[in-house]
Specification:
The complex is a heterodimer.
Chain A (H helix, E strand, L loop, with lengths): L14 H21 L3 E2 L1 H4 L1 E8 L5 H10 L6 E5 L1 E9 L10 H11 L5 E9 L1 H29 L2 H25 L2 E2 L1 H31 L5 H33 L5 H28 L4 H4 L11 H4 L1
Parallel strand pairs in A: 1-6
Antiparallel strand pairs in A: 2-4, 2-5, 3-4
Helix pairs in contact in A: 1-6, 5-6, 5-7, 6-7, 6-9, 7-8, 7-9, 8-9
Chain B lengths: L6 H18 L1 H4 L1 E9 L7 H13 L6 E5 L2 E5 L3 H15 L3 E9 L3 H5 L6 E2 L1 H4 L1 E8 L1 H22 L6 E5 L2 E6 L2 H14 L3 E6 L4 E7 L1 H26 L5 E5 L3 E7 L4 H9 L3 E6 L6 H5 L7 E5 L6 E5 L4 E2 L3 E8 L5 E7 L1 H12 L5 E15 L5 E14 L7 E5 L4 H16 L3 E9 L1 H54 L4 E2 L1 H30 L4 H33 L2 H33 L10
Parallel strand pairs in B: 5-23
Antiparallel strand pairs in B: 1-3, 1-4, 2-3, 6-12, 6-22, 7-8, 8-10, 9-10, 11-12, 13-16, 13-19, 14-15, 17-18, 18-21, 19-20
Classes of the chains: A alpha+beta, B alpha+beta.
Family (chain A): Belongs to the SecD/SecF family. SecF subfamily.
Protein name (chain A): Protein-export membrane protein SecF
GO molecular function, one term (chain A): protein-transporting ATPase activity
């Protein structure tokens, strides 16, 4: 192996500070989740949501008054996307007629003199369905994490597996924390985004871990910390470039994708930042703290795979 | 020799690219507004019907692009939606009674592509507009009905065996009977056990003499299963009656039904129809009146005029209803002794006693079975509520041979298939009430189109940003990566169009956008490796070779883990999450292929086997 002919960035020397920082953010997220909770969207809470479009910009006060008169005094009315589009949200109700609420609200709005009303979207979710979804979403996340843990432990080493899964848990927690602190609505598409964050962060972590493993085998000298620093420096430009391209498309999604996809883009934008950071400072730091060493990685026979790669590519 | 691909690899690549383009192609053609005309109750349309439709359109002076028979339905395509709507009105006016006329969007794929099974991607309701219902079947009612049935059959059985009991009633998910003596109890247990093998009997003599009969888990499961199936059948019939093209009715889990009606905006109407009840009424035939005279308006007092379903002949029925379908607990089709199809009907105990009283003095007289449905007229009252029309026709007229009890049969249902459908409808007619809508999502057509436009814009802008960045950063190799990225998009669309179950949704579009951003990762990994190798002083050919080699296992590991995540999302998730998972998984597979094999092929062609001094990277 040739000498390392570039300047190594001493990532790991800052790992204590970074871990303290991460711990602080995680505690803040947990605290916010406990106090503020998540602003669960209709998918999870149940209830009725109606999106209507008016010809001109709509007067929210007038709409509230109309709804009040018709017995929908719990309606939350807000602009959505533009001033002529209005979103109305209603709490879940008891009784078999709950499914009809959307239609009666629309009828009330049409009767009231507000100009032409265009129904854009009605969603009604029963309270039980929402509860099941919350459970399912949590289950999806947990299953994903466990399967990934098993795969990484099998393919790499348990310290890496623990490191990468901790990084994933860290990213998911911080993303949820962000949504809780800012009070952003957490719906099904945001859940999908959080799961995509898992995918992205994992991608990043695996690339870094892969390089660490390779360097442990290749480099003769240097302690674990030094080798990790070398690996992180080597993968840094790749990490940055991939982050930049992903952020580019997410920005396009955020600004051009419309109001329905805002939550999705927000969660992913934040997730890409956190995921990039965590692959360096959470996954690698934990593997290092758990005492990863050359001996742990050298005896494996995975090296063999390189021999038959020619035919694969 | 380094960096040379064998010929077969290029051929494979070219084949896959061609297939990708071919199957992605139908998406460019878009869809034609069309009308889909089908017969009522599954009646198959023929060439004469096609001519009739054509004639009607010509008479109304409406231009159509093409008209033909597809799957025994008439399909007429129009140039624009305005013409389509006018045509629907004209046809509805002409014979809305006999046909179901549905607005439809038919893929405008050229025939040669359609012959290759190349069709455009299915769009989710959030992109094309429409309504999605999730309905829940109240299983407790189904179980309760079965219990009532057991109680009444226990009564009959005990009466036949001449065993006296003190009380009988529902208990848990079964039945409990109290006897006066232990002897009665043992006799009853023996007799009932023989007749009801699917129940678990248990006797107790602690405080009186009790016999309990409970349904086993298997039996409960069977009841739930059959209730769900019946409900799916009846909902499917109703959905067909609404006249929706490509509706989806399928089960979800053990007690839920998903209904998707693309293009339907009027949810109130859809809900009314799905919730409407088909039922039967049994009435005596008015033998004194003249049905043909009644046709010209002279209907005798106390009677009503109806028509027979099979031959359209008028029948005069007494106004008084002997029995309604609410009392039906079971219905099954079979054949009578002459081989004609018949429907066996079981009534609950109350219905049984009403019926036996009503038929006691009517032996030798004709009784009619009236089938009643509520159908939408397409009109609205002044409050905007849809107007429904009660449609009733006589399905059978039979002479009462003997006093009828809680179990009897009706004939005249027509074909065995019709008898079967009728039995299902009757059973479900009593079960349809406990269906509840637990979720509803309606997306207006304007929002659907807007979602498509916005999604396309986001893809274009994101794609452009990534293209420019890659060229600026990697120059020549960046161009190659961009080529791969473009091909990747085509392949995703191609694969999505090929897989029958794949549906493009809004989160799915977001998944494609995300894939565009992440797909370059594999190339970034490879190119960074090549740069490293060059820095370490290797020659260009060696650098390319080792770059691809050493990046491969990293790319594989990273993508397999993400793929695991996508598979789990698909398995555990519902609706939008599933849509996202599908595009993510497809994107991973195609991007690995294009980024590794695709770019390598181009780079090999450009640099392979030659003396290259410098790489454009």
């Amino acid at each position: 192996m040739l000498a390392v002919n570039f300047k190594t960035i001493a990532f790991m020397s800052a790992r204590k500070i970074a871990m303290a920082f991460s711990a602080l953010l995680m505690i803040a997220s947990l605290a916010s989740l406990a106090v503020n909770k998540l602003n669960f969207g209709l998918d999870f809470t149940g209830g009725t949501l109606i999106e209507v479009g008016f010809e001109q910009s709509a007067e929210l006060k007038g709409i509230r008054a109309v709804l009040d008169e018709n017995g929908f005094d719990d309606a939350v009315v807000q602009h959505f996307g533009s001033s002529s589009e209005v979103l109305i949200r209603l709490e879940p109700r008891e009784g078999a007629k709950a499914a009809e609420i959307g239609d009666s609200v629309l009828k009330a709005l049409r009767k009231a003199d507000q100009g032409e009303v265009d129904m854009r979207r009605i969603e009604f979710v029963g309270p039980n369905v929402g509860k099941e979804l919350t459970e399912q979403g949590g289950l999806a996340m947990l299953t994903a994490l466990i399967c990934i843990l098993i795969y990484v432990a099998f393919r790499f080493e348990w310290r890496f597996a623990l490191g990468s899964v901790s990084a994933l848990a860290h990213d998911v927690l911080l993303t949820l924390g962000l949504f809780s602190i800012l009070g952003l609505e957490f719906d099904l598409t945001v859940l999908a985004a959080v799961l995509a964050v898992i995918g992205y962060s994992l991608n990043d972590t695996i690339v870094v871990s892969d390089r660490i493993r390779e360097n442990f085998r290749k480099l003769r000298k240097g302690g674990p910390e030094e080798i990790i620093n070398i690996s992180l420096t080597q993968t840094l430009s790749r990490t940055m470039i991939t982050s930049v391209t992903t952020i580019l498309v997410l920005l396009a999604l955020f600004f051009k994708g419309g109001a329905l996809i805002h939550g999705f883009a927000t969660a992913l934008l934040f997730g890409v930042f956190v995921g990039t950071y965590s692959s360096i400072y959470v996954a690698s730091s934990i593997a290092l703290s758990l005492g990863i060493s050359k001996e742990d990685l050298i005896p494996t026979v995975v090296e063999k795979e390189g021999a038959d790669q020619e035919s694969l590519i | 020799m380094l960096n040379k691909y064998p010929l077969w690899k290029y051929l494979m690549l070219i084949f896959i690219i061609c297939a990708g383009f071919l199957y992605a192609l139908p998406n460019l053609y878009g869809e034609d507004p069309a009308l889909q005309i089908s017969g009522l109750r599954g009646v198959q349309l023929e060439a004469t019907d096609l001519d009739k439709v054509k004639g009607e359109l010509d008479k109304a002076g409406l231009a159509y692009q093409s008209a033909g028979l597809v799957n025994n339905q008439v399909e007429v395509r129009f140039a624009d939606t305005e013409e389509q709507l006018k045509a629907k009105e004209a046809l509805n006016h002409a014979y809305g009674e006999n046909y179901i006329i549905a607005l439809n969007l038919t893929p405008a794929t050229p025939q040669w592509l359609a012959d290759l099974n190349a069709n455009p991607m299915k769009l989710g309701l959030d992109l094309r507009g429409g309504v999605h219902f999730l309905m829940e079947v109240d299983m407790s009612v189904a179980i309760k009905k079965n219990q009532e049935e057991t109680v009444s059959s226990f009564r009959t059985d005990l009466r036949e065996e001449k065993i006296r009991y003190a009380r009988i009633g529902e208990f848990g998910n079964g039945v409990k009977v109290e006897f006066k003596s232990e002897e009665d109890l043992t006799n009853a247990k023996r007799a009932l056990k023989k007749k009801h093998g699917d129940l678990t009997f248990d006797d107790s003599t602690d405080e009186g003499f009790f016999l309990t009969a409970l349904m086993g888990e298997q039996k409960v499961k069977e009841i739930k299963e059959s209730s769900l199936q019946q409900n799916i059948t009846i909902i499917r019939n109703r959905v067909n009656a609404i006249g929706v093209a490509e509706p989806v009715v399928m089960r979800q889990g053990s007690d839920r039904i998903v209904v998707e009606l693309p293009g339907v905006q009027d949810t109130a109407q859809a809900k009314r129809i799905l919730g409407a009840t088909a039922t039967l009424e049994f009435r005596m035939v008015d033998q004194n009146g003249d049905p043909y005279a009644a046709q010209s308006g002279r209907v005798p007092a106390g009677s009503e005029l109806y028509y027979r379903r099979d031959n359209g002949q008028p029948v005069l029925l007494k106004r008084r209803v002997m029995l309604t379908g609410d009392h039906i607990i079971d219905a099954a089709s079979s054949f009578d002794e002459y081989g004609s199809p018949q429907v066996n009907i079981d009534l609950d105990s109350k219905g049984g006693s009403i019926f036996s009283r009503a038929t006691k003095d009517a032996i030798g007289k004709p009784m009619a079975t009236l089938f009643i449905e509520y159908k939408p007229t397409g009109k609205r009252d002044k409050d905007g509520n849809p107007v429904f029309k009660k449609v009733a026709d006589v399905i059978s007229v039979a002479t009462i041979q003997a006093r009828l009890g809680s179990s009897f049969r009706i004939t005249g249902a027509g074909s065995p298939q019709e008898a079967h459908d009728l039995a299902l409808l009757l059973k479900a007619g009593a079960l349809i009430a406990p269906i509840q809508i637990v979720e509803e999502r309606t997306v207006g057509p304007s929002l659907g189109q807007e979602n498509i436009d916005l999604g396309m814009q986001a893809i274009q802008w994101g794609f452009l940003g990534v293209l420019l960045f890659m060229v600026a950063w990697y120059k020549g190799f960046g161009m190659v990566a961009n080529l791969a990225l473009g091909l990747n998009l085509v392949l995703i669309v191609g694969v999505m169009s090929m897989i029958p179950g794949a549906t493009l949704t809004l989160p799915g579009m977001a998944g494609i956008v995300l894939t565009v951003g992440m797909a370059v990762d594999a190339n970034v990994l490879i190119f960074e490796r090549i740069r490293e190798e060059l820095r370490d002083g290797r020659g260009p050919q060696q650098a390319i070779h080792h770059g691809y080699d050493s990046a491969f296992s990293t790319i594989a590991d990273a993508n397999i883990t993400t793929f695991i995540a996508a598979v789990i999302l698909y398995a555990v998730g519902t609706g939008p999450i599933k849509g996202f998972a599908v595009t993510l998984a497809i994107g991973i597979a195609t991007s690995m292929f294009t980024a590794i094999v695709g770019t390598r092929a181009v780079i090999n062609l450009a640099y392979g086997g030659r003396n290259v001094k410098k790489l454009s990277i």
